Amino acid sequence: MPRRQFQADLQKASDGVSIAGISDVRPGADDGEFTFMCVADGQQLEVSGLVPDLDEYPSRHTCMIFGSDNASASVAAALNDITDAVTGKTIPQILELVSSRLESTDGDGDQQMLDSQEFDDFDGDDDDEEDEYFPGDEDMMLRPGLTNNSATATGEYSEATAAFRQRIQHDLLIAKSEGFKVGHQGGLMDGLGCYISISILISKLGISEEAMQAWQLEPTEYLVAILHYPIGYKSMDNVKSFDPHQGRQSFGIRVGICKTYKPTMQEAIAAFTVLSKEEEKQREHSQQSDSQQDASSSTLPKGFRDSFISRPLNELLEHRFHLLLKYRYGGMPWHGAELFYNDQVLHAAHTHQDASHDKYYEEEHVSNAWPNIVTADHITASTGQQHSLPLVAMQFVLRHFVRCTEFCLICFSKMPEDLQAIKPYVCDNPLCLYQYMSLGFGPSIEHEILSQPKVVDLLISFCYTSARMNRLKDFPVGLSLAVPPPVAIEGDYVTNVQPYYPGRLNRHAPPLPAATTPLPVVAALSVRFNASALEMLFDDCKQACPVTNGNWIIIRTDDDPGKALHCRVIDTSLYPSVKVSEPILPVISEAPIDPYASSRAHPSPSQAIQQPQPKNPAARLLSPNEFRSASFYIYNQNFDDLDDHKGQTIAALISMLPPVQEMKTYLLRIRKAQSPLSAWVDRLSPAALGVLRWIIASNRACILQVDNEDDVGNGRKSEDRLYGMGGWEQFRFAMGAPDKERRFIQAVRNTTNRLNLKYPTLFAWHGSPLQNWHGIIREGLHFNETHHGRAFGNGVYHAPDVNTSMSYSMHGGACWPMSELKIQQALALNEVVNAPSEYVSQTPHLVVAQLDWIQTRYLFVRTRVDYAAPVTPVPGTKPLDCVEQDPSRTPRGVDGPLVIPIHAIAASRRPKAMTTTKNKRQKASGKSQYDPIEIDDDDDDAASVATLEEDRIIFEFDGDYKTRHYDDSLPTPNSISDKGKSKMGAIASFSSKIFGKHSSSKPLTDYLPGTLDYTTLPMLQMPAWATTSATKRLMKDFKDLIQVQRREPAHELGWHIDEDKIDNMYQWIVELHSFDPTLPLAQDMKKRDIKSVVLELRFGKDYPMSPPFVRVIRPRFLGFQQGGGGHVTAGGAMCMQLLTNDGWSAVSSIESVLLQVRMAISSLEPKPARLQSGGRMDYGVGEAVEAYIRACSVHGWTVPAGFKEMAYGGSDKAEDGYKRF
Q1: Cα dist. 994→339, 997, 1064 in Å?
Q2: Residues near 929 by Cβ (< 8 Å), separated by ≥ 6?
Q3: Acidic residues bias located where (predicted)?
Q4: From CA 603, how far away is CA 287, in angstroms rounded?
């Protein structure tokens, strides 16, 4: 199994690997994570790997590789490149690739740095020393895989000045003030790569409950836009100066759904990980499987996930947002900018469009039903002010997320205004449909079949009937489906048959014009066919083989030409003998059928089928094992080129589909392999599968099956099931735009207040023949066409009695033979504003012209097959909570007055349940996750318990990153005074105010803290050049370090800081202790009774943008020429690239610095560190500075600006007073 394989590989690597530079491989904290130590730029670096989906290991999995905070920019870039290359590789292969890319070739990963004094004696022209090895020389050579250039092609990292940080704070505060939640990950305030998340609760977007169901959202989830700044934060002013390519390189946006207001760092990284098309489909399949399991268990999906529209929306943001911004600042509104882009780029002719045309500057009319946060425009509302890029980006995301049904999902052109859909789709451009289907932007048919098989059956049945009755208006044009030529199926599918409407003469639903174009002449190919051996035999072997492997064909034997055998070519290698798959014999039903005329000479649905429907249609083929003369046609007709035969072809392809339950069984059987339905190559032709995808993807209504009471439900069967329609299948049904529910509620409230209504709404039936429902669920209810006459005016016709609507919904066409529902009739139950006096007519029918007054609630289908058999409908159980209806206008069903469950209406209109809790955030009591949810505005991040401190601190500490002038000195330990205390007491008080009280524990080591005599050390005063930003950062880092020291045992930590002795934040004294007793250094220290190595860390005014100066004060180490090592120069300075501008990262923690310094001193390669015997003990700061500069010169490292000023505590020269230290 994949998980076992991963664990086995990880255990094998943990036991020991022989890969250069790789060590200490171990499992990580999360599932699928592992960590290891690796050498990068001469330093030990902890690297982590994460396999998000172990089910795909070890063949198709992705793996994200990232280093620790102390990784340099060059190493981080190399690791990012490695991430793209490790897909499908095992753990040992990943480790080898990391070692190769980072050039980890040393035995234990350490590289001895050349002593600066020894370099003075080195003569490069001396042939005798030509082969002498100086550790660190290899660092002087260029490394193509790890350049030190930390900038990209678009520019340098952002400089973290006070103005830079103020702009960040300004931009994020603006977004916060507009009602959004703000979070961040990475080095945002330090000008480094980072992620900013802008989010909002789904419940605040004004999306109807039906739209949430259709979009698979929960009101308690967050819509999150992640903005990635790979080279530091960029403001709107920066972005406006970039060209589109630079803009895409400087920042990117990803959109998704999360149960919290911001994703984790790993989730943010994964959101921007570039996957192949196949990998993207696999990830979506995995997410859909997870969401399906979550739905069955009534729990929300965990973590950050893609929404139903994330892929097309991410494409829009990636390729167009930067140009659209430029158009916006040219004076165009969003819709004008998008229109200009489409005219200029997508539909550009030989001449460019005139950008001054008035249509690009017209004001956009947006429904006032949306909340202000959805329609707000920061650019227009803040003219002449600085604009917040995160806010503008989020407002653009909301425009296309909440109002997604108003735009084509591919070209993002505006859809027709009269199109009311609850699900987004594409425009009439065939290219858009092709991209929509080929790029996988549509819904997953596999997910739909597994989760709602009855709905899929319903959709296929509606389309089949509409195709047989020649009522289809739109077709899957643009997909270039290879279908049988029309002559191959001529006569099998009769269309344009008039349906029967009892009691209504001359009021038939008018079919579309019948086919008038003659069938193209396509000659059939002759062959002999053996049905038992599944073999075709061609008589003339000299002719080229007319078929290729994978072709689908239709075979008709000469002795039984009425049977069309559809099969796939499997093997042509033995031509003239060709092997085919088991043939499929489609079942073709006759039409029309009048199911209520039992005394008439109409066949029942079971009689309408030519033969009894077996489980496998191919089982009909029971012929002798002999070759029979036959002819065949190849599926080589482009569906797009058909004229008047598209409907007939659609019906033929649908009849080829297996029953939905059979498709579900197949998917469950191969679920572990995560194979799509297209893998069923011998049962589903690509053309039939394409039509199936089109049927499901083009459905723009929200249809949810309501379980029968004896079914295993999803927890809502008793809450959604209506009483009074026994014998009918029930579906929750919603149509219209996502704001349709809000417009309906607004109309209900306005009319109720105006007419003082006791019962604001009523329920009524709407019936229509089956052939119309394929169009209804795509276009919504309207009265653009006359189907049954308009004797009572223009509007949508309703009836309070189901029998009236049933007379309008008589079966008007053939039923899909493979359907398990066997649909004979369909009715909609609508909720209507209760103002009959304002209807077009109220007797004998309710005719409503105001479309906003109508909201669909239920779809009922009659599924009984044998109408001659006596059936006693079971009314079912009445719902516990029901809608209070107008007694004079209560609709009637087949079992009497309808009892409608309370969950049929919007949550905002349901009576509030009594609750004993006072928690404003707690959900109201009830069994359904769709109960009313009361959530506070949550506009103030500082007051929100959900906001993390790391995000809240940006807004809480006004001026935290600003230069502030104080009356006295900068905030230092000495500036905090306590009355009645000595200076040392005040210092201790300062420490306790930062860190709080703590209790000490006895260390398990011979090192005793507090024994170091600080009077013998070169203690400095607070420097005059100290800055507020550096001081506050140092205080924070110092606090973090002390917290680590208190948390970890001293013998395991290996270093100690006496917090009560630190009086100057720019100078820290650190003791390294408890070395491995087997090290020569530890043995030397024991002989001399030395308990610790005393280090000094000096920080400059540019910290954390510049590294600290780290040197040894005591004891003195042997130089390299004397056999010593440990990365300590002859002057005592640490010689490590990490501590130079080339290796330093502003996100590096001091804890990681101390760890790497300790590791460098403990290194045994090429020589171990040893102590010097006798002589003076302490290093002077002057010799350390000179040795550091010489070492940087040798290795080509960059000395930080102002290094001497920082190292000498404020002077550029090594005065005598400093030299003595």
Answers
A1: 57, 9, 14
A2: 218, 298, 715
A3: 117-139
A4: 46
707-721, 924-938, 1039-1053, 1140-1154: range with lowest mean pLDDT: 924-938
Q: Encoding tokens for residue 146? A: 């790890």
In this chain, the answer to whether the domains covering 2-102 and 1014-1208 adopt an identical fold is yes
Q: pLDDT for 445-490, tens place per residue?
A: 888 898 889 999 999 999 999 998 888 888 888 888 999 999 888 7
The pLDDT value recorded for residue 392 is 96
The CATH code of the domain at 1014-1208 is: 3.10.110.10
Phi/psi at 382 (5° precision): -125, 50
Q: HSE-up of 191 (CA within 13 Å, CB side)?
A: 22
- Poorest-pLDDT segment among 181-195, 931-945, 1149-1163: 931-945
Give the span between the Cα atoms of 204 and 222, in whole angstroms: 10
Q: Dmax over Cα atoms in the chain, in whole Å? A: 122
Token output for 754: 């105006």
- Nearest C-alpha neighbor of 703 from the set 1021, 1096, 421, 1009: 421
Measured distance CA(398)–CA(370) in Å, rounded: 11
> What pLDDT is recorded for position 352?
53
Q: What distance in Å separates the CA atoms of residue 765 and residue 256, rounded to the nearest whole number?
A: 39
Buried b (16+ CB within 10 A) or exposed e, 329-362: eeebbbbbbbbbbbbbeeeeeeeebeeeeeebee
Q: Are 42 and 136 in contact (CB under 8 A)?
A: yes
Half-sphere exposure of 395 (CA within 13 A, CB side): 24
Q: At residue 328, does pLDDT exceed 80?
A: yes
The whole-angstrom separation of Cα 64 and Cα 48 is 8
Q: Give the CA distances from residue 1196 to residues 136, 139, 995, 1120, in Å, rounded to whole numbers and listed in that order.
A: 11, 8, 41, 20
Answer yes or no: are the C-beta atoms of 815 and 866 closer than 8 Å. Answer: no
- The pLDDT value recorded for residue 420 is 66
Q: What are phi and psi of 566, to 5 degrees?
A: -95, 130
Q: How far, in Å, CA of 705 to CA of 727, rounded?
A: 15
**Peptide bond between residue 58 and the one before it cis (omega within 30 degrees of 0):** yes
- The per-residue pLDDT for range 891-915, each reduced to its tens digit, is 999 999 999 998 888 766 776 543 3
Kindly report, residue by residue over 949-971, the tens digit of the pLDDT: 778 777 764 544 443 333 333 33
CA dist list (Å): 157 to 153, 192, 365: 11, 6, 41
- Secondary structure element (H or E) that encloses residue 764, with its range: strand 761-767
**Who has greater pLDDT, 187 or 172?**
172
The residue ranges of every structural domain in the chain are 2-102, 162-276+301-427, 445-490+635-698, 705-710+717-786+793-905, 1014-1208
Tally of residues, the chain: 1221
pLDDT tens digits, 832-890: 999 999 999 988 889 999 988 999 999 999 986 544 444 555 666 788 788 899 999 99
- pLDDT digits 0-9 by tens, 1094-1116: 999 999 988 888 899 999 999 99
Return the CATH superfamily for domain 2-102.
Answer: Ubiquitin Conjugating Enzyme (3.10.110.10)
- Backbone phi, then psi, for 482, in 5-degree steps? -90, 110
* End-to-end CA separation in angstroms for the chain: 64
Section 532-544 average pLDDT: 91
Nearest to 207 by CA among 337, 308, 335: 308
Return d(Cα 994, Cα 1089) in angstroms, integer. 35
pLDDT of residue 787: 52
Higher-confidence residue: 541 or 757?
Answer: 757
Judged on CB neighbours under 10 Å (0-12, 13-18, 19+), 75 is: buried
Domain at 705-710+717-786+793-905, CATH class: alpha beta
